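Deliverable D5.2: sample structural annotation.
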Amino acid sequence: MAHYNFSKDIKEGELGEKLVTKCLCETYGATLLSENKTNTHDVIIQFPENQHQLWSGKVSIEIKTDVLVSKARDTGNMFIEYECRGKPSGISVTQADVFVTYFKNLNQIWAIRTSDLKELLETYNFRTVGNAGDVGSGTCGYLIPRMQYKSNFVRYVLPE
């Protein structure tokens, strides 16, 4: 996120979830089945069968919204959270089929099967950072150089 304030960041995240869900449903003629407020997944969407490599049948999706990255401020990294407040979080706990990062200020959606993302994280020695979230949250995550690993992701550029 970017505000380092949970109440502001959660609102940005929920708006991102709605936008990504709408985009996927409109693009693939899919239907939102459910929304979830736990750490297992964010939404379940029903896609037409054999529609796309990621989007076929009933798919649970974890959606993370990054509002820190912009054209003016971009380290080139994707942050993948694994711990917050001393507890496993993000990629460590999700049970979603697909993991999505929505870069709000770049108008981009990056998607990957969660199992493929976990394999990527296990295979490569990505740099990790701590204290990345709200003050005192102790948020920790991996930094994936986006452009170097872009072929591992399905990417969408949204109209501005």
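Annotation notes: The chain has a mean pLDDT of 91. The first helix runs from residue 6 to 28.
The annotation will be released with the project's public dataset once the embargo ends.
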